[in-house]
Design a protein that fits this description.
Number of helices: 12
Radius of gyration: 25 Å
Number of strands: 23
CATH architecture of the largest domain: 3-Layer(bba) Sandwich
Shape: globular
Helix content: 25-40%
Strand content: 15-25%
Oligomer: single chain
Mean pLDDT: 94
Number of domains: 3
Length: about 475
C-alpha cells in the first residue's frame, strides 16, 4: 500500500483555496478534489457578478436625481438589459479566470470528481480510495429551492442561473428578502423591471434593529412591491407564474429564489465519521480550529453554515489548512485555536445595510446605550442627493466601550469597516470621538451618533476633544 497523503482537500472554492495555500507551504503530499465548476462561488455566481449588476442598476437609477442637480435630459436614457447582462458575464469571466489560475498548475494533485468519506482517514473519489492523515472539507453551498418549484424550469432562477440569462422578462418576483434577495430585487427594479418581492419574515437584509428595518422597508417600497409576513405559493397560469402570499397576488414572467443557501454536505458520507449529526446532517465544528470533534477532519467555509461570507471562508480555510497539516505532521500536537475577527456584514443595496460587531438583538438592553443619527439632513448626504437612512451605534453603559453598530445608510461599507476596527480594538465612544472627522464627509453623521451615545454615558471627560460639542449648524456637522 502506498504511503498515505498528508491531507486531502474536498472543494476548490474560497475556503479550499485558502487551505491549499497553507498546505502547499508544508507538504507536496496532498490532493484537491472538486465536483462541478472550478472557480469560487464569489467569482462565478456570487458577490462579484452581483456587484457588477448592482453598479449598472445604480448608474441607471441615478438619472432620477440628476434633475435636482440642474442636469436635464436624463429621463431619455434607457437600459439595454441584454447588454447589462453581457457586461456582467464579461467581468465574471475575468474574475473566474483569476480563481482558476490558483489550481490549473497543480497537475496530478488536482482532481475533478465526487468525493465520499469512508472514515476520518480515507476518501473515495469516483471509485478510487485514498488514504490520508487529514481531511479538509470545503464543499461550499448552493441556493435553496423547494423541489416543487423546479417544475417551472427556465422560469425559476437563482444566482446560479440569473447571470446566464440573455435577457430578462419585464415582470419578476424575488422570493426571500435576506441579503441576496434585497440586493437582486433592488438592482432589477432600478433597471426598469417590474419587481414584486416576498418574505415570510418582517426583517430585511438581515437587519434586527426594528427602527432600521422599518427605514429600509419604507425606502424599498418606493421601488418595488414588497410583501412580508406570509409564505409565497407559486402556480402556473396563463401568461406566466402566479405568486400568492396571503392576500397578495401577482403574475410574473420569472421567479428568483433567494431563500438562503444550503451547505453541500448531504452526499459526503459524514456518517462515516461516527460523530453526532444535527437534524440538518451537520456535525459540530469548533469555530476556532475548524475541527470536527477530535478527528483529523476539518470543515471550513460555507459548508459549515457558520457565516457564508468570503472573508470568513478565507479565514476558515486558513485555519483548517494550518491545523490539518499540524495534525498530519505532528499527530500529538493540539490544534491552534484562532481568535476570530469582529463580525462584519455589508449588503450592497441603496442605502447600504451593514452590521459591525454585535447587533442590538444580541445585547442586554439594560446595559446598552444606543446612539442614533438620521442622514436626512446630513450635509454631505444632502449635497449628493443621497440623504436617506439611519445609523445606530451600541455601547456598554458602564464602560462606554463600543459593542457594535447597525446601519441603513449611504456608503455604509466604509463606516462599517471603521466601526468593526473600533470594536476589535475595544475602543470606547469617547476614544472614537477623540479621532479626527474631516468636513464635509458622511462620517460626520457617525460622529453625531457617537455624540448621542456619549450623552447617555457617565464619566464624560471634562477637557478633551472627545467632549467637543456640535456647532448647532446642520451644514457644518
Amino acid at each position: 500500500m502506498s504511503q498515505p497523503l498528508d491531507t486531502l482537500i474536498i472543494g476548490a472554492g474560497t475556503a479550499g483555496l485558502a487551505a491549499l495555500r497553507e498546505v502547499r507551504k508544508r507538504t507536496d503530499r496532498y490532493l484537491i478534489v472538486n465536483e462541478g465548476p472550478w472557480g469560487t462561488t464569489c467569482a462565478r455566481v456570487g458577490c462579484m457578478p452581483s456587484k457588477a449588476l448592482i453598479e449598472a442598476a445604480n448608474a441607471f437609477h441615478r438619472r432620477h436625481a440628476l434633475e435636482a442637480f440642474g442636469l436635464r435630459g436624463a429621463m431619455g436614457l434607457s437600459a439595454d438589459i441584454a447588454a447589462v447582462l453581457q457586461r456582467v458575464r464579461t467581468l465574471r469571466d475575468h474574475f473566474v479566470a483569476g480563481a482558476l489560475q490558483a489550481t490549473e498548475a497543480l497537475g496530478a494533485a488536482r482532481i475533478a470528481g465526487s468525493a465520499t468519506l469512508l472514515g476520518p482517514n480515507a476518501v473515495d473519489i469516483d471509485g478510487t480510495t485514498y488514504a490520508t492523515r487529514s481531511i479538509i472539507i470545503a464543499t461550499g453551498s448552493r441556493p435553496r429551492v423547494p423541489d416543487a418549484w423546479l417544475a417551472f424550469g427556465e422560469c425559476m432562477l437563482t444566482t446560479e442561473t440569473l447571470f446566464e440569462q440573455r435577457t430578462l422578462g419585464p415582470r419578476m418576483a424575488v422570493i426571500g428578502m435576506g441579503v441576496i434577495g434585497v440586493e437582486i430585487a433592488q438592482a432589477l427594479a432600478r433597471l426598469g423591471i417590474e419587481v414584486a418581492a416576498f418574505s415570510t419574515r418582517p426583517n430585511l437584509a438581515g437587519l434586527k434593529d426594528p427602527a432600521l428595518n422599518a427605514e429600509l422597508a419604507a425606502l424599498l417600497k418606493h421601488e418595488m412591491r414588497l410583501h412580508t409576513g406570509a409564505p409565497a405559493e407559486l402556480r402556473e397560469v396563463a401568461g406566466g407564474i402566479e405568486v400568492s402570499s396571503g392576500a397578495h397576488r401577482v403574475v410574473v414572467d420569472q421567479v428568483i429564489a433567494a431563500m438562503g443557501r444550503v451547505p453541500n454536505i448531504e452526499h459526503l458520507g459524514l456518517q462515516a465519521l461516527s460523530v453526532p449529526l444535527d437534524p440538518r446532517g451537520m456535525p459540530a465544528v469548533n469555530p476556532q480550529t475548524q475541527q470536527i470533534g477530535d478527528l483529523p477532519v476539518f470543515l471550513a467555509g460555507d459548508a459549515n453554515a457558520h457565516a457564508p461570507l468570503l472573508h470568513e471562508a478565507a479565514d476558515e480555510g486558513h485555519i483548517a489548512g494550518i491545523n490539518a497539516m499540524a495534525c498530519a505532521l505532528t499527530p500529538a500536537a493540539a490544534p491552534t485555536r484562532f481568535q476570530r475577527r469582529t463580525p462584519l456584514t455589508i449588503v450592497f443595496c441603496d442605502p447600504q445595510v451593514a452590521v459591525a460587531g454585535q447587533r442590538l438583538a444580541d445585547l442586554d438592553s439594560a446595559h446598552t446605550v444606543t446612539g442614533t443619527v438620521s442622514f436626512e439632513n446630513q450635509g454631505r448626504a444632502r449635497a449628493a442627493q443621497r440623504n436617506h437612512g439611519r445609523l445606530h451605534v451600541y455601547a456598554d453603559r458602564a464602560t462606554g466601550r463600543l459593542q457594535g453598530a447597525e446601519m441603513c445608510a449611504p456608503e455604509a461599507e466604509h463606516m462599517a469597516h471603521l466601526l468593526a476596527l473600533a470594536v476589535q480594538q475595544k475602543l470606547t465612544v469617547h476614544e472614537l470621538l477623540g479621532m479626527p472627522f474631516y468636513h464635509p464627509v458622511l462620517e460626520e453623521g457617525l460622529r453625531t451618533a457617537l455624540r448621542d451615545a456619549a450623552r447617555q454615558l457617565p464619566n464624560a471627560p471634562e477637557s478633551d476633544l472627545a467632549s467637543c460639542p456640535a456647532l448647532g449648524v446642520p451644514a457644518l456637522e
